[in-house]
Fold this sequence. Notes:
- The protein has helices at 2-33, 35-38, 44-49, 54-63, 67-80, 85-115, 117-132.
- By secondary structure, the protein is mainly alpha-helical.
- It is elongated, with a radius of gyration of 17 Å.
- The mean pLDDT is 79.
Amino acid sequence: MWFDTLLQAFRYLLSVIPATVAGIVLMELLIELGWIQRLGFLTSPFIRFGHLREEVGVSFLVSFGSPTAGNSMVAELNKKGLIDSKETIIASLVTSFPATFILVRDLTPVLVILLGTTGLVYLGIVVGVGLIK
């Protein structure tokens, strides 16, 4: 039983890891080429609503591909002095939201296989906390 579960989890990881690595590399490439900046118009209504700079919207968009890259962008904005500490805290909370969905996407099959209904309850709690945050 445990061997079958571990085998299924290993197969899942073999299918997820290459796609995750490719997504991170692609997102970093798009950031370096400046293409993500051009997509800022997609997040501008939300950013205006939150009274944040457009660059924070770009970091939010990037966070769907790579939360680490999105948080790095927020840190760089703060380091350059484009956003103050209050905006940095808000931007960090905003860019952490996509990480919740990436967590759910990556962990759902493993948690359901290993924990069953308890895994689904756990994922529901994680998503609920992400929405509240």
